[in-house]
Structures are given as structure tokens and as C-alpha cells.
């Protein structure tokens, strides 16, 4: 393979047919270019979609209730289902191995006032675990902790926008703000890179809110994350178990999604994954079809080259060249053209992606790029393609009868 | 060296079959210089191709240096050709993008001789045909006679048992023809077995034995007094 004579021959044929070599090489380079660009685009879409969901932990599950749509277990349809604190405890105790974080949610609205500034904000009363589930980024102070829950402390974690609105240039941390007339101490400020609206929110201990605003043990919904080691099937299987259990507990028909709904992020994620997988498949498919055209082009040129060199091959065989040596020569030439032109295509695609990829940042499309594995795969494909392109012509060359080749006197 | 018994060969031309060799019996001893003569279509080239293992016989026996040549695979035939035979063609058949020295070294390449040794040997044989100063020239920069001398050097480089020359002077003027024949005679003087296919009487008489072929059979096989080509050079 690293024989000087072989390479000398290859370079000679390529040199004497520069335009021909360039044109054929171009088709393969172009094919690889398109293949890489397609894969990068799909990758970009995937990045975009994933970015949309980045707000929340991707392993979260939400349990929500509503009004039953079906009569079940002696109850008529239209019954309101209400989650309570003991539902949370019940889930916690039923699935100790499956659950990573769990928190109840209690929604409320509040008119918040600090000095002269007032504003209306939504309040989510939660447990400490909620920070991990919602991936809340506390930039100052702290999040709600267990002590706040136990003490029913009047504390709040406010969004950056809330702090800006109410406190202007003052440091909000440790100050007291009035929620519907009751003083809450600001213990933390959070940001959210998802959107500004999320930063107009206030978190407070759930126990505090349950007592102040209704003195109940009712909760609006339960958010939890499952064991992060679970794969998709395990995750779906777990949310199904959870759903069955909760529906049984609240006497809701198993297929009644209105009464109680368990929403698993993994499912939505799965949908996106399969969507991008299909796109990727199409990308690879189209790329391959174009590549095949390139391969046929190279095969065509090799057939031509061999026809031109029939006599030379005959001479070589008369001088003692074994068929395998002829095959090697042709295959190596074919692989060489394919690989070089493919690499040029790859390099071009890669340079374009490296230059403009990071600048593309839209919700549905961001940072199109190719991974090393794609590059490695493309390289392997190229070499296989080169072999395929050269195989038939090589066999044809090996079968050249020296007598026929030499007979044209 | 060469022994042929009842060799037959026919070519299929569409539905017709053309019987080219109709039972050739023929023996060549070590160190002979044999001319195979015959008009066009007499089968002389076919015989040479079979002797050169470039083509297979339909029936009959062929023994080369004690080795039966029969049902060879392509690979085996290539090995035997490389080891036993050196070819000299009418149209020289040098590889046009290789220098004279590289052309001479080619059979050695297929013998897997190391590069350095190949170059040394190639130079040695180029010197023998008097073309050492032209070692780096491409075939296109050489005259016809020079090309044929390079081809002879190439045929000899692998040190074969037999040299097969198919109309070696066919493309050359008479002066260069004699030069080439002079070289062939000298190589023969050193004890090499050489077969020359020709249709020229004067060339044939520069050999030591003439075999006449007509319509696929040997009609005459005689020893002749060798005419030295040297005197015409």
C-alpha cells in the first residue's frame, strides 16, 4: 500500500487526466458536503428543540387534577378531584426508589407592595425540592428550605423582574415586601433564561400559603422528577404506575384524562427525539443517494481509465503482475480519489459550520454542527465508497487477457 | 528447455471455429536461438502466446524447464511468466510514463526485489544494451532501436529461462534491426535460450535454427549456419 511505485502510477494517471479527476472528485466531495450539511441542520433543529425545554428538568413528571369526565366507582361524572398534602406523602412513600425530587404546587396571585411600588404577580407555593425540578437559578440569597416549610415562615424567593419592579435600585435581599398586606421577607432572587415572564414570579413555602390563604391542606398539582438513571421505557413505565395508583386512590376511571392527568416530560421528549431521528434518517438517506451518484461517477471514470490502460495492464501481466496486484492498483486509485475529494467536501462543510454555526441562534434552530463521530463515519463511508467504485473496474482490469491487450500491433 | 507435444488450438469466431494450431511437436534445447517463421495466419504468434503462457492450448502437452504448464490459475501463470520468461514485443510495449530504468526494473518489482537492488540490476542490464546514459529518459525521448533495446534489457532483467521475441525487428528499419539482432545474438552467445518469431528471411537466418509454420503445422525444422549481424552494424 505504501509502495512508491504504486503511488507513482496513481499520481501519473491523475496528473494526465486533471480535469477528469477533478470533475469526478467534485461529485463525491459535493455529496459529502451535502451529507454533512444535512446532518448538521438536523443537529441544529435538535439543539433548538432541546433548548426550548431546557427550563425544566427533562425527567420531570406533573400530576394535575380536574373534573372527571366519566362516571366511575359509584361517582357521577363531573366530580372535582382535589389533591391534598397526604397525596404527596402517599406518592413519596409508594415510590421511594423512583422519585428523585418531589414538590407540591399551590398557585395564587398576589398584589405585592414595597414602599410606593406595587405590582400583581403570580405566586407558586412549593416545597424546597421544587428548585431542582424547575431548575430555578437562585442568583442571590437562597431558595425555600425545610425549616421554612416547618415554621410556615413568611419568606419569598422573587424573580429578577419582580425585584427590579419593586425595589428599583435597592438590594431586595432581606427586605420585607407586602403580599396582600402581609409582610414577607425576601430570602432569594432567581433568574430564568427561559423568558422574562418566568422572572415575574414569586416562590413561597407551600405550608405558609396553605395556612394564610385558606387554611387548607389542598394542593393544586404535584411536580416530581424520576430517578435520572431511568431510560425512557423505565420512565414511561413509572409514570404509568403512578397514574394507575393515583386514579385508583381518587376513584377515577383509568382512561379518564380529565379527572387526573400524569404528564411525563420524557414522552414529549421522546416525540421530539423520534421526530429528529426521522429527519436525521431522511438526511442520511438523501446524502447517501447523492453519494451513490458520486460513486457511480468514479466507477465510470475507473472503467474508462482501465480501457485506456488495457495495453499497459497487458504488459504488466506479461511481465508477471499477478491479478491481485492489478486489483490493488485500481482500488487504491479509486479510494484515493474518493477519499481526497470527500475530505475536501468534509473540510468545506466543517469550515462553513464552524464559521456560521455558532451565530445561528433561533428558537427552532441553533448551532448546527457535526460531531466527531459523524466525521469518522463519513470517512469510513468514503473509503468503502472508494472500494465499491473501484471494485468492478478493478475486476475487469484483472481479467484483461494479456494476449488481447497486446495483440493490437 | 521447451517441449511441446501434439499442441492444438482453435479460436471460436462466432459460430465458426478456426483451427489455428493442428498438432505441433517441437523441442528446444538449452542455449538455442530459434526463429519461428511463417506467413501471416500460419499460427506462429499463437504458438508464441501459448509458449508465453499468455494463452492456453486446447490440448497437448507443454513442458517448460521440466515444469508441466497446464491449467494454470492467473496468479500461477503470472508467477511462471515472471520466473521463466522474458518478452520482447514488436511495439516495444514500454510504459510511457516510466523512465528506461524504471521500465527495466518492472519485472523485478513483481519479483518483490527490494527497490535499491532493482535499480542496481536495471542499471546493469541497461549498460549491457548500451543505454546506461539514457537511464532517466522516458520512452518518448528514445529512438525505436533504443526502445527495443530497453525492452530487451527489461526482458532480461528478471533473468528468465527463455526469451520470447515476437517480431522484435518488425517496427524497425534494417540498420536498427541488425543492431537489435546483434544484441540478441550476443545474449544467446552467453547461453540464453531465445525464440524469435519473424517473417523476415534475413532475420531468421541470424538464428541457429528455423522452424517453418504453415497452416498450423510445422512444415520445416532445420538448423542453419548463423549469419552474424555484427558485420552489418
From TrEMBL, chain A:
Coiled coil: none annotated. Keywords: Cell membrane, Membrane, Transmembrane, Transmembrane helix. InterPro entries: ABC3_permease_C (IPR003838), MacB_PCD (IPR025857), Macrolide_Exporter_MacB (IPR050250). Residues 286-402 form the ABC3 transporter permease C-terminal domain. The chain crosses the membrane at residues 21-42, 282-306, 326-352, 372-392. It is found in: Cell membrane. Residues 21-235 form the MacB-like periplasmic core domain. The keyword Membrane applies. It is a multi-pass membrane protein. Belongs to the ABC-4 integral membrane protein family. This is ABC transporter permease. It comes from Flagellimonas abyssi.
TrEMBL record, chain B:
The keyword Metal-binding does not apply. GO terms for molecular function: ATP binding. It comes from Flagellimonas abyssi. Keywords: ATP-binding, Nucleotide-binding, Translocase, Transport. PROSITE patterns: ABC_TRANSPORTER_1, ABC_TRANSPORTER_2. This is ABC transporter ATP-binding protein. Residues 2-233 form the ABC transporter domain. The keyword Transmembrane helix does not apply. Gene3D superfamilies: P-loop containing nucleotide triphosphate hydrolases. It holds the Pfam family ABC_tran. Belongs to the ABC transporter superfamily.
Amino acid at each position: 500500500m505504501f509502495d512508491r511505485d504504486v503511488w507513482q502510477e496513481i499520481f501519473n494517471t491523475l496528473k494526465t487526466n486533471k480535469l477528469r479527476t477533478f470533475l469526478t472528485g467534485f461529485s463525491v466531495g459535493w455529496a459529502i458536503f451535502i451529507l454533512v450539511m444535512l446532518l448538521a441542520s438536523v443537529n441544529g433543529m435538535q439543539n433548538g428543540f432541546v433548548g426550548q425545554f431546557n427550563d425544566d428538568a427533562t425527567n420531570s413528571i406533573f400530576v394535575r387534577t380536574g373534573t372527571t369526565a366519566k362516571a366511575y366507582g359509584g361517582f357521577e361524572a363531573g366530580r372535582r378531584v382535589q389533591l391534598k398534602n397526604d397525596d404527596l406523602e402517599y406518592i413519596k412513600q409508594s415510590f421511594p426508589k423512583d422519585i428523585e425530587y418531589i414538590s407540591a404546587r399551590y398557585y395564587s396571585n398576589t398584589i405585592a407592595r414595597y414602599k410606593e411600588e406595587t405590582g400583581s404577580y403570580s405566586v407558586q407555593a412549593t416545597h424546597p425540592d421544587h428548585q431542582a425540578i424547575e431548575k430555578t437559578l437562585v442568583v442571590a440569597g437562597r431558595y425555600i428550605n425545610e425549616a421554612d416549610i416547618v415554621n410556615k415562615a413568611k419568606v419569598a424567593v422573587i424573580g429578577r423582574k419582580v425585584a427590579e419592579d419593586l425595589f428599583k435600585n435597592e438590594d431586595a435581599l432581606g427586605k420585607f415586601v407586602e403580599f396582600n398586606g402581609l409582610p414577607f421577607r425576601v430570602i432569594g432572587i432567581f433568574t430564568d433564561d427561559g423568558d422574562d415572564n418566568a422572572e415575574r414570579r414569586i416562590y413561597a413555602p407551600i405550608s405558609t400559603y396553605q395556612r394564610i390563604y385558606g387554611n387548607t391542606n389542598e394542593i393544586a398539582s404535584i411536580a416530581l422528577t424520576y430517578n435520572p438513571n431511568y431510560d425512557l421505557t423505565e420512565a414511561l413505565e413509572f409514570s404509568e404506575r403512578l397514574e394507575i395508583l393515583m386514579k385508583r386512590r381518587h376513584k377515577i376511571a383509568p382512561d379518564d384524562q380529565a379527572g387526573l392527568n400524569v404528564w411525563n416530560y420524557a414522552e414529549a421528549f421522546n416525540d421530539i427525539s423520534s421526530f429528529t431521528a426521522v429527519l436525521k434518517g431522511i438526511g442520511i438517506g438523501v446524502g447517501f443517494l447523492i453519494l451513490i451518484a458520486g460513486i457511480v461517477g468514479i466507477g465510470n471514470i475507473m472503467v474508462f481509465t482501465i480501457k485506456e490502460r488495457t495495453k499497459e495492464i497487458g504488459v504488466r501481466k506479461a511481465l508477471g503482475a499477478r491479478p491481485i496486484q492489478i486489483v490493488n492498483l485500481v482500488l487504491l486509485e479509486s479510494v484515493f480519489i474518493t477519499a481526497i475529494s470527500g475530505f475536501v467536501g468534509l473540510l468545506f462543510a466543517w469550515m462553513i459550520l464552524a464559521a456560521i454555526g455558532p451565530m445561528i441562534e433561533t428558537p427552532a434552530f441553533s448551532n448546527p454542527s457535526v460531531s466527531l463521530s459523524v466525521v469518522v463515519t463519513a470517512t469510513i463511508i468514503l473509503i468503502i465508497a472508494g472500494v465499491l467504485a473501484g471494485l468492478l473496474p478493478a475486476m475487469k482490469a484483472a481479467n484483461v487477457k494479456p494476449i488481447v491487450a497486446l495483440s493490437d500491433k | 528447455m521447451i517441449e511441446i507435444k501434439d499442441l492444438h488450438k482453435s479460436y471460436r469466431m462466432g459460430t465458426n471455429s478456426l483451427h489455428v494450431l493442428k498438432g505441433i511437436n517441437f523441442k528446444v534445447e538449452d542455449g538455442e536461438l530459434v526463429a519461428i517463421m511463417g506467413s501471416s495466419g500460419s499460427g506462429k504468434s499463437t504458438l508464441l502466446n501459448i509458449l508465453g503462457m499468455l494463452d492456453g492450448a486446447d490440448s497437448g502437452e507443454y513442458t517448460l524447464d521440466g515444469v508441466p504448464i497446464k491449467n494454470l490459475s492467473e496468479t500461477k501463470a503470472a508467477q511462471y511468466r515472471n520466473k521463466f520468461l522474458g518478452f520482447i514485443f514488436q511495439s516495444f510495449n514500454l510504459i510511457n510514463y516510466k523512465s528506461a530504468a524504471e521500465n527495466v526494473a518492472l519485472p523485478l518489482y513483481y519479483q518483490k526485489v527490494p527497490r535499491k537492488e532493482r535499480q542496481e540490476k536495471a542499471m546493469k542490464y541497461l549498460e549491457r544494451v548500451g543505454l546506461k546514459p539514457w537511464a532517466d529518459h522516458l520512452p518518448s525521448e528514445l529512438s525505436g532501436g533504443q526502445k527495443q533495446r530497453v525492452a530487451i534489457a527489461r526482458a532480461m532483467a528478471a533473468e528468465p529461462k527463455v526469451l520470447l521475441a515476437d517480431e522484435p525487428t518488425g517496427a524497425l528499419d534494417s540498420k536498427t534491426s541488425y543492431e537489435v539482432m546483434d544484441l540478441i545474438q550476443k545474449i544467446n552467445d552467453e547461453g540464453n535460450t531465445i525464440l524469435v518469431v519473424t517473417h523476415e528471411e534475413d532475420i531468421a537466418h541470424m538464428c541457429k535454427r528455423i522452424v517453418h509454420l504453415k497452416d498450423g503445422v510445422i512444415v520445416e525444422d532445420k538448423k542453419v549456419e548463423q549469419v552474424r549481424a555484427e558485420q552489418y552494424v
